[in-house]
Design brief:
The complex is a heterodimer of chains A (about 100) and B (about 130). With about 100 residues, chain A is α/β, with parallel strands linked by helices. Helix content of chain A is about 35%, strand content about 20%. The two termini of chain A are about 20 Å apart. The chains are: A alpha/beta (about 100), B alpha/beta (about 130).
Chain lengths: ~100, ~130
């Protein structure tokens, strides 16, 4: 049983990403949407945490929200897979449960 | 697969209702069914037909109404959240002695039981909020 965890806030604003990463199972996945996408960009102080998380878990970032924030040409942290909304839908179908960390 | 969606935030205030709409649209385009969208808390403001955004902006309420009509998506507004925020259908108008209604096409007012039912009957329930 795997869970898709959706995080929508930047860790510079709220602690939901930290709380999510420290609690989820090893076969769970994390999808960053809305303001959370900023942390998928290389060079923030969360990069090393995310790289170690990516070694054990699948990490995804929603490309339309990256583009909406003018970050499309920025390098993404190694280990992230970029998805569009259809990819988001596919991730929801591929996991047994979905949890939004609001 | 059968999806339901929970929207907890109002339009033009937070990205939640835009994200929820884009998700629902992609689900339908991928051949899935969107059984119900349940609007809770400030989310009920998605369902007022008094909304008049500028012409060059997206019309969030109309977008939902069109999706409901062309894809048989059930758009449900939480009754208690509607009463607090002045979202009124004929039944609520008569019951609470108001002089107007403003529930948009494709939307209907009902209770939290509809959210529980959606969670039980759908394969996945996806929540969008703050």
């Amino acid at each position: 049983m795997s869970t898709l965890n959706i995080v929508n806030k930047s860790p510079f604003e709220k602690r939901s990403l930290d709380q999510c990463l420290s609690r989820i199972g090893s076969d769970d996945a994390v999808l960053l949407i809305e303001d959370a996408v900023v942390v998928a960009m290389a060079g923030t102080r969360y990069e090393s945490d995310l790289k170690s998380a990516a070694a054990a878990k699948k990490l995804y970032v929603l490309t339309p929200d990256v583009e909406a924030r003018g970050l499309a040409d920025k390098p993404v942290v190694e280990g992230f897979t970029q998805v569009d909304y259809k990819g988001f839908v596919a991730l929801v179908t591929e996991h047994d449960r979905v949890h939004s960390w609001l | 697969m059968k999806f339901s969606i929970l929207v907890n935030e109002g339009p033009y205030q937070h990205q939640a209702s835009d994200s929820a709409y884009q998700f629902a649209k992609a689900a339908l385009e991928s051949g899935h069914e969107v059984q119900r969208v349940f609007f809770y808390h400030d989310g009920v403001n998605n369902g007022t037909n008094l909304t008049t955004p500028p012409q060059d902006d997206r019309h969030i309420q109309k977008r939902w109404s069109e999706m409901a009509e062309s894809n048989k998506v059930d758009l449900v507004l939480c009754v208690a959240a509607c009463q607090r925020r002045g979202i009124v259908d004929e039944g609520e108008r008569d019951r609470n002695k108001k002089d107007a209604t403003n529930v948009a096409d494709g939307f209907r007012i009902s209770g939290l039981g509809q959210l529980i039912e959606a969670a039980i009957e759908s394969d996945r329930l996806v929540t969008f909020g703050d």
